[in-house]
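Repro:
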Amino acid sequence: MTSSSKFIQKHGLYSGEQKEAAELSRQELDAQGIEIVRLVFPDQHGLLRGKSLTKNAYLAALESGIDITMAPFFFDTANAIVMNPFSADGGFAIEGLGGSPNVKMVPDPATFKVLPWVEETAVVICDLYMSNGELFPFAPRSILKKTLQKMADNGYGLIAGIEMEWYLTRVVDDMLQNGSLGAPGSPADPPKVAPVARGYSYLLTDHLDEIDDVLRPIRKALVSMGLPLRTLDDEWAPSQVETTFDILDALAAADAAVLFRMTVKQVAKRQGHLASFMCTPAIDGFYASGWHLHTSVVDAETGENLMVPLLDEPLSGLGQNYVGGTLEHGIAASVFTTPSINGYRRRRPYSLAPDRLTWGQDNRAAMMRVISAPGDPSSHVENRVGDSAANPYLYMAAQAAAGLDGILNKTEPGPLSEDPYSQDVAQLPTTLADAIDALEADTFYREAFGDAFIDYLVTIKRSEVSRHASWVAENPDAETYINGVTDWEHREYFELF
């Protein structure tokens, strides 16, 4: 047995808790009759990629990891090859990444989940490592872990609650026989779908009952996997659903978000439906979906909520500084919170989505909505800027980094807003192109996440913007767009997200 076969032990990659979780997962394989384990990692777009391992291969991976190509990191959202894998550094400005080398996929056994909708199958989220045992620097989960470690080094932890909107539709034609199967940089034709409900409403129980046969197996799967599901709600637009979860620490919340989206999409697909987390599909009558991220800063040792206000204040001083940092870096964070061209269709005044850098007491028009009361241990803030297709790891890392910066520098958020859509403050970017420019020029996130990653993400996202601009130039008649959404956007995002 070579030394590389003990990669995890050699580089000390497992904590004591992970070693215990690894042993528990071994026991679960036998107890649950598991034959296949899907090892997955979140890519730069927040999509899960990976391999299906046999039981014995998974047991080996708990010691040695498993090699996997880093090729997905060359791709934009349409699998256009953006980076040159055969240049000296693969286009990544880091030695050792030329020629599309393998990286090590190392299971995080604490994420082991049995999949209720697939026989004899489990899933485990992985971290990616270089051959020298260092974290692969472009993996979003690694970026979040490093950011949370910086918070912990300063005595803080971050807890988060997920509130995400999405669309449920019924597949009418899968387009496998009648449509394009796609090519690199040119997505396949998405399935043709029909809504599952009609009419705008909100919290209407009759709408929920109409789709209960589809939601029930999704709900059962989420609960069976141990994800802390709280609610399934009828959202405003026809076929739009909102789902919320109880609070988790930030890394577990990001893991829960990607597993939630995976579960919803896969279970729905098996029932002849398509679930989409695309912000605004090009379907008549559909409205923008968002992802509201609820967070609190806690004491890293005791878990005490440090944002609870005293009398006559909206949040504690630390909580106000946390909001101040988020607002100060909100423009540069836009690529992380709203990474799709389509997501910027939310950023309109009087749309219940924020269009500028504001905070308000229980005000849904503000970017940072404060939900608090003096002495209330559940006091927290809700960042309402996110696209429902956002990469959970980058969204939370951007929030954690900005909030911590505000705390350390005692950044003041300014006065609370009573009318956020008219307040004279800086506007958020209204296009992905503008957001990319802001991120490229930003020094804060370059320091927080590294120049190499920021330059990489800017390059990847500009490919997306360039392809969209070329399509619009060839199809300039906006009257042919549905809901103002281009066919390009629908092909690019609807099935993918």
